[in-house]
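Hi everyone, sorry if this is the wrong subforum. Our group has a chain we'd like a structural model of before ordering constructs, and none of us has done structure prediction before. Sequence below.
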Amino acid sequence: MVMVSDNYIVGTFLVSLFGFVSLFILRRNNKSKKKMEKGSREFNIQTDAVNGTDIRECAPENGSGDDVIIVGAGVAGAALAQTLGKDGRRVHVIERDLTEPDRIVGELLQPGGYLKLVELGLEDCVEEIDAQRVLGYALFKDGRNTRLSYPLEKFHADVAGRSFHNGRFIQRMREKAATLPNVRLEQGTVTSLLEENGTIRGVQYKTKDGQELRAYAPLTIVCDGCFSNLRRSLCNPKVDVPSCFVGLVLENSELPFSNHGHVILADPSPILFYPISSTEVRCLVEVPGQKVPSVANGEMANYLKTVVAPQVPPELHDAFIAAVDKGNIRTMPNRSMPADPHPTPGALLMGDAFNMRHPLTGGGMTVALSDIVVLRDLLRPLHDLHDAASLTKYLESFYTLRKPVASTINTLAGALYKVFSASPDQARKEMREACFDYLSLGGIFSTGPVALLSGLNPRPLSLVLHFFAVAIYGVGRLLLPFPSLQRMWIGARLISSAPGIIFPIIKAEGVRQMFFPATVPALYRAPPLD
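Answer:
Right subforum, don't worry. Here is the predicted structure as tokens:
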């Protein structure tokens, strides 16, 4: 009896111990599963029906995941990532190449753009990159020159233009954005937008090691630059390529006017010089049309030495020839494209993917940074971005609110390119001469246009008034002191050709949004309720 009782006791003990251990293991697994579900995303493997490759799908669970996907981390994308991240948004940036870019444009930030940089808290990104202060422009024509200073008297002493290596500036902004815990920068190539019932839900992209992934967010912002392959579904792209820039770097040379951009009204097109570091000066030679002389066979070097060099200021001539002989000659097409968006739920275009203007005036970064300020202010009242239809209707006001800055800079860039380029037409020649003399008058005749150019006074009406004032001034030069029939005829053609220069640009920008924004209903839409 004693032995049987002992067996029961041992058996009961073993069964109880087994049950306790089993219960402990089950509870531990359950807790672990809940923890993973709470803090992670679910990955589904799907097979592409076309090429048979696996696509890894990253889907948010229980409200976790990204708020915004940004395609591209150039000037617009990097600045936007930092701005939205600082406001608490969870941002996923996908950039094709995260190494330092090497470009020959995007190197001059106007004072108006610098003010937007300050407003976004990014002014330190022009520090520690050997950026140079720019205080205005010097204009050269037929051996004459005039200096045009930015009207900076009413601003803080630090406010001025900045010129720099484009890649250094972009890397500084990327590094600053990456310091935020809620901003994730990833190298990859976005191949398509993911659409569902007319709404963009995210993107499909290929990582740098070739893996196909899908990422989802309630808002996708495309900032993939002037060569965007995604813009076609979000806007009506009408890209014009009127000319190309040929880029050189002059080393250890002194500009005639320190801390100024230099514009030479050469034949057939303008030549630009501006500092990009304490020892380097960028030279951009504009070549009309889309076909440029070949760099490989020496045609370009010959063109630069025989056609361009004789028109370069004497102070820069030797350094220019040395830069040509060095052989690091690069070309880039100059593109312009008016903003013509298709409002699409779940997606938005920004930067050069959305809107481009001729780079003659260096206004691209100013427009991009100004657009980011507008978008940031529109998104700030919103805590939830998931109602794509309501969000899209609300964000239609973005296209009107951006117009004062964007349309002024775009129109001025297009008009100045046409006026500054040489032409066999006598009326156009007189318009070019009148523009140089008008700006040389000083006072309001120079500060007004330069305030427009710098982004400090982005008023479309002021732009139109100054443009036609130049045309009228040109007619006055022809008729005084004694008019002749020939001069009267040229004056009549000058004044009649002026609208043909500026009005097509204004029409493309949108007359109503540009001059009468208060009549656009979208301007008064309230943010959707969360």
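For your construct planning: DSSP finds 15 helices and 19 strands in the chain. Residues 1-15, 28-47, 60-64 have pLDDT under 50 and may be disordered.
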